[in-house]
Amino acid sequence: MADRPRTSTIPFLRTAVSPDAQADLPLGLPGPRIWRPDDLARFLGVSRSWVYRRTEQNAEDPIPRIRGVGRLRFDTQSGDFQRWMRRQLDSVDTD
Fold it and tell me: What is the H or E stretch that residue 84 is in?
């Protein structure tokens, strides 16, 4: 049987796409578009201090953030943030 596109498992997305193309699709994260550290911590189920530590320049796989706004904010629609979030969601053990 030939390989056929899988239906996406990304929330709110119900299109048939290949696994490679799926990596480039938006995640459909809940609004608002700009998240505060508390929003990200709540979504990931981690502490706010974990979020702050992961935004430091020397952190392993630092969280992409909006620079120059004076407060820590995350643009959930930016390509860098989407790729970072996808890596976090891919690393979750669902067993």
Answer: helix 79-90
